[in-house]
Amino acid sequence: MLQVFDAEKVKADVIDIDAEFSKLKISVSESIMNIIKAVDSGDMIDDMTFTDRFGVKLYLSELSTGCKAAICVELMPDKIIDLQECGLNARDAVFNYCENGKILLHDFGVTIVDAHTRKSPIIYAERTFTIDSFNEDVL
Predict the structure, then answer these.
(1) Which of 12, 21, 29, 38 could bridge 82 with an S-S bond, Cβ 3.0-4.6 Å?
(2) Rg of the chain's alpha carbons, rounded to an integer?
């Protein structure tokens, strides 16, 4: 399940996304490939590289901060990841492709785009949501 926390009430465990991302051991997986595709329009090649939207081969360290944050959520499910530096596409990728994890949101005013891939519930304020009910009741 994905747990959502309000930045006005909780502190994040991870604020410096780039520093935490640099410590991760990344393996090719469907969820990581989906995140890279959704956020940076890229295709993961292996555990070190991806091709960007222009077909240029780059290192994973060159992914956007939002993409790195979404990957941190996926690979560090026990830590609260601060999404303040993420764009809406990265935030939406977290909601659509990260089945487990903890995130800190700062802005609750913009609806999540639902890719209809979420299988597990979203937990916020001790209540359980789908993306649709989260959009309707929280955002």
Answers:
(1) 12
(2) 14
What is the enclosing helix (H) or strand (E) of 18?
helix 17-23
Q: For residue 82, which phi and psi values (nearest 5 degrees)?
A: -80, 125
Give exposure, 70-98, as e/b (b: 16+ Cβ within 10 Å): bbbbbbbbebbbbbebbeebbbbbbbbbb
**CA distance linking residue 44 with residue 131, whole number of Å:** 26
Rounded-to-integer distance, Cα 10 and Cα 58, Å: 35
Residues 6+ apart with CB under 8 A from 98: 2, 31, 35, 70, 73, 74
Tokens of 39: 């956020």
Domain chopping of the chain, boundaries: 2-137
Question: Which residues does 49 contact at the CB level (< 8 Å), separation at least 6?
Answer: 57, 58, 59, 60
Taking only the tens place, the pLDDT of each residue in 17-33 is 999 999 999 999 999 99
Claim: this prediction has a pTM higher than 0.90? yes
DSSP single-letter state for residue 53: T
